[in-house]
Design brief:
The protein has helices spanning 20-28, 69-73, 86-92, 106-116, 130-139, 156-162, 177-185, 198-206, 217-222, and strands spanning 4-7, 33-40, 46-48, 97-101, 123-127, 145-149, 167-171, 189-193, 211-214. By secondary structure, it is α/β, with parallel strands linked by helices. It has a single domain (4-225), classed as TIM Barrel (Alpha-Beta Barrel), CATH 3.20.20. An 8-stranded parallel β-barrel has the order 1-2-4-5-6-7-8-9, surrounded by 6 helices. Strand 5, helix 5 and strand 6 form a beta-alpha-beta unit. The protein is globular.
Length: 227
């Protein structure tokens, strides 16, 4: 498999994160995969946003779960962009996607969309929450999943295997060669986040990773020089 470059929330280093503008930019820049985050609105829509509230990335305030989709649509998500729903992203770009479940309750809604739109082969489901990955695998047995880890320990490989994941997406600041080798021995792919410098990219290559998550288009362009 070639070395993957994964656009973090689209191309958030140069565009408003988790917006259609950001996802289109990531595809234009040639990123192999586009990562996004999912929460449920008050009325059950699969809203694309990282945080549980709208304060940081919009001109509004308060929890996503307390607003309907129509109310969320009124907010400016950066440069005039509106908060998208997952179905719009699927239509706006053709690249493979990593859909991160931030809210365990979103697993059911995501499974329904992936099934109804025949997206199982195009979308990997990722999450920090073991139970969310277990739930989506039960709902969609054929779906590919990845366990995400920030302050993870040596047990992260066993945790991934326990929920049927095929990939680990890990904070590069804690990553060791020993852990990468253990994961690969267990047939797990390993990608690291967030890789935004040439030094971090060289480290990722040295660790033998399968790919990186990045905010910046120049990291995609630099990959060919670090093989």
């Amino acid at each position: 498999m070639s070395f993957l470059t994964i656009g973090h929330r689209g191309m958030m280093g140069v565009e408003p994160e988790n917006t259609l503008r950001s996802f289109v930019r990531a595809e234009q820049e040639g990123l192999d995969v586009i990562e996004l985050d999912l929460h449920l609105s008050k009325d059950g829509a699969l809203v694309v946003m990282h945080d549980a509230d709208v304060d940081r990335t919009t001109d509004g305030a308060g929890p996503i779960a307390e607003r309907t989709l129509a109310e969320l649509r009124e907010l400016d998500a950066g440069r005039g962009e509106r908060i998208p729903v997952f179905e719009e992203v699927v239509t706006a770009v053709k690249a493979p996607l990593q859909a991160e479940i931030k809210d365990v309750a979103a697993a059911q809604a995501l499974a329904e969309v992936l099934r109804s739109r025949d997206l199982v082969d195009r979308v990997d489901v990722i999450s920090f929450h073991d139970e969310a990955l277990a739930a989506i695998r039960t709902l969609l047995p054929g779906v590919r999943t990845a366990l995400v880890g920030s302050r993870y320990g040596a047990d992260v490989v066993d945790r991934a295997l326990a929920v049927g994941a095929t990939m680990l997406s890990l904070n590069i600041r804690r990553l060791t060669l020993e852990l990468v080798e253990r994961a690969h021995a267990a047939q797990l792919k390993v990608v690291a986040w967030t890789v935004n410098t040439h030094d971090q990219l060289r480290l990722a290559r040295g660790l033998g990773l399968d790919g990186v998550v990045t905010d910046l288009p120049e990291i995609r362009r630099a990959v060919r020089f670090t093989a």
